[in-house]
Specification:
- The complex is a heterodimer of chains A (475) and B (111).
- Chain A is an all-alpha fold.
- Chain A has 21 helices and no strands.
- In chain A, helix 4 packs antiparallel against helix 5, helix 7 crosses helix 10 and helix 13 crosses helix 14.
- Chain A starts with a helix and ends in a 21-residue tail after the last helix.
- The relative contact order of chain A is 0.06.
- Chain B starts with a strand and ends in a 6-residue tail after the last strand.
- The radius of gyration of chain B is 16 Å and the shape is globular.
- Chain B has 111 residues and is an alpha+beta fold.
- A 4-stranded antiparallel sheet of chain B has the order 2-5-1-6. A two-stranded antiparallel sheet of chain B has the order 3-4.
- Classes of the chains: A mainly alpha (475), B alpha+beta (111).
- The interface between A and B is medium-sized, with 12 and 12 residues.
Chain lengths: 475, 111
């Protein structure tokens, strides 16, 4: 089964996200069965690993055994068909494996081992239930909150979430963090050792503590998404972030910001097929073929947002002021999602509700004062009230000096300058922004803009659609 | 689970003028709850002496082992269920605002 581990990584992941397969499997039915198996196993995986951690308290054991079960499933299920209860099947295999491993380990701490074996023997993949049979806390939530504990470094939080909750191979995580696999393995091991040694609890906090911790968890999911969505990122991470956000929104229906984050990610992700041309270059928002946006994802997000608006209105004193109440109660992810929804539901750049977007950035700046949000606000106001207003706000955003080395600030200045009619200066600014940009795709897109402005296609402005924190338009 | 709480100074204390918790109340509460096993404030680092033995020779020198702007001014040994509880104890200490607090688990060689 150990050998199958690699199968699990390759198939489980590659298949789930599309295409890294290509093993010359000519039997289409079997390939389809393989995909079905990978999806079912992938969906069940976090619950298995989370339950094993709860029962044994041993992260590495839990992860190894869940991986083994996943690998076996990916070998067996395509031929045998899906079991009636895929989660139950995986849990049984993983549990038996854990019992084997524990029985074979040295006699030290035999008492603890016995306890773990007993607990495992009694365990199923079913979550803990109270006397009334209600699910107490979903194990997966516990796992996510523990991976995202603030006592771990932010990078460790993201990496551990990818590895433990999403079963992403360490090599893929290492690539995203621009480091080697062995260095990433050491970081993950250190993080797991800290959880054990400092006794970071395996728990979802409640009450005031939940309000304190949830934003950190959501920030990790957002960062995970940007690692996938950024031009040179790992696309699979964006899918994982959407899956996790969906899980969180479902498991924490009372938390508006969890639903809002899902909406925001769905909206940004909805453009994934339209934001690159055939050569892989980034396509700016106004040049994108909007029919290629994922309109199912957009309506899901819009539905989530109207659900939130109704919630605020229902809770408010006066129904007459519903709109304003709703906006005032909204947290930062909801405000960002509403801004993204303005873009996603507009038929074109010209027909976009820029006044509403500008207002959204005003709100966002009040909630989360930061130079990057000020920059985005300058762009929005530039469209809503003209490039002169945008340039004035840009100057203010830059006055603190925090944007000095930020290529996007130069790109924004270039765009506003082009729209104000000074082509020559705009082209030079686009080239300066390109020279300061690290990502190859972003740099090319900026050079294209410079050429377009030089070549006389000036006037109509456009923004690079880079998504994530670094976007000019969408944050 | 035992945690050592190092109480340190910080070059950037909290500027929020809200009332600082009373250290005596903090000590009483945590002593009563059985969470604070021991603890004391230390004399300033100007009184510190560093001792080393190298090749059998005693080396005594003036000052703390590291010259830093942030210095340890006291310690408390806690007994807590887990890190979250230790964090909650630390956050209510007045020096969490005026300085910073480092929490370290006591090593468990059984593990």
């Amino acid at each position: 089964v150990n050998d199958g581990d690699r199968v699990g990584h390759g198939d489980g992941h590659g298949d789930r996200h599309g295409d890294r397969h290509g093993d010359g499997d000519r039997d289409g039915t079997r390939a389809a069965a393989g995909r079905l198996a990978a999806t079912a196993a992938g969906d069940a995986y976090p619950r298995i690993v989370a339950a094993l951690i709860r029962i044994t308290g041993d992260w590495t054991l839990a992860e190894d055994c869940a991986q083994d079960a996943l690998s076996l499933a990916l070998v067996r299920w395509p031929d045998d068909g899906l079991p009636a209860n895929p989660g139950g099947w995986l849990m049984m295999v993983a549990r038996n494996r854990a019992v084997d491993v524990l029985r074979r380990t040295s006699v030290e701490r035999s008492k603890l081992r016995e306890v773990a074996v007993l607990a495992l023997t009694a365990a199923t993949e079913q979550p803990e239930r109270d006397e009334d049979g209600d699910e107490v806390v979903d194990d997966r939530l516990r796992l996510v909150f523990t991976c995202c504990h603030p006592a771990l470094s932010l990078e460790a939080q993201v990496a551990l979430t990818l590895r433990t909750v999403c079963a992403v191979p360490t090599a893929d995580i290492a690539r995203a963090f621009l480091t080697g696999e062995s260095a990433m393995t050491r970081r993950l091991t250190r993080a797991k050792a800290k959880i054990a040694q400092a006794r970071i609890p395996y728990r979802v906090p409640s009450g005031a503590a939940l309000a304190e911790r949830l934003p950190g968890v959501l920030a990790v999911l957002y960062l995970l998404f940007t690692h996938g969505y950024n031009a040179d990122g790992e696309p699979a991470f964006a899918e994982e972030a959407v899956r996790l956000a969906r899980l969180l929104a479902r498991l924490m229906p009372a938390e508006a910001e969890a639903s809002a984050l899902l909406a925001l990610l769905l909206l940004q992700h909805s453009r994934r097929h339209a934001r690159r041309d055939a050569e892989g270059r980034l396509v700016s928002l106004d040049d994108q073929d909007r029919s290629r946006w994922d309109h199912a994802a957009i309506s899901e997000a819009v539905g989530l947002l109207s659900g939130l608006a109704q919630r605020w209105q229902g809770g408010g004193q006066s129904r007459g002021q519903g709109r304003d109440d709703a906006d005032d109660a909204a947290g930062p992810y909801e405000v960002q999602a509403r801004i993204a929804a303005c873009h996603a539901t507009a038929p074109s750049v010209e027909a976009t509700d820029w006044l509403r977007i500008a207002d959204g950035y005003d709100r966002l700046l009040r909630l989360q004062p930061s130079p990057v949000i000020e920059l985005n606000r300058a762009v929005a106001h530039g469209y809503a009230y003209g490039p002169a207003v945008g340039l004035a706000l840009l100057e203010r955003a830059r006055s603190g000096g925090a944007l000095d080395d930020y290529p996007l600030a130069v790109a924004v200045e270039a765009d506003l300058t082009a729209r104000a009619g000074d082509r020559e200066r705009a082209a030079a600014l686009f080239r300066r922004a390109a020279a300061r940009t690290r990502g190859g795709s972003e740099r090319r897109a900026l050079l294209d803009r410079a050429d377009a402005v030089d070549g006389g296609r000036a006037g109509q402005g456009s923004q690079g659609d880079q998504g994530g924190q670094s976007a000019v338009l969408e944050t | 689970m035992k945690y050592m709480m190092f109480v340190c100074t910080d070059t950037e204390p909290d500027t929020d003028p809200a009332a600082e918790p009373d250290i005596n109340v903090w000590v009483d509460q945590n002593d009563t709850a059985g969470r604070r096993l021991q603890g004391m404030a230390l004399a300033p680092t100007s009184t510190a002496t560093t001792v080393r033995v190298r090749s059998g020779r005693l080396l005594v020198s003036d000052g703390p082992f590291a010259e830093t702007k942030e210095v340890i001014v006291g310690f408390d040994l806690l007994e807590c269920a887990d890190l979250d509880e230790a964090i909650e104890v630390a956050r209510t200490h007045p020096m969490a605002r005026r300085g910073r607090i480092e929490i370290r688990p006591v090593a468990d060689f059984e593990q």
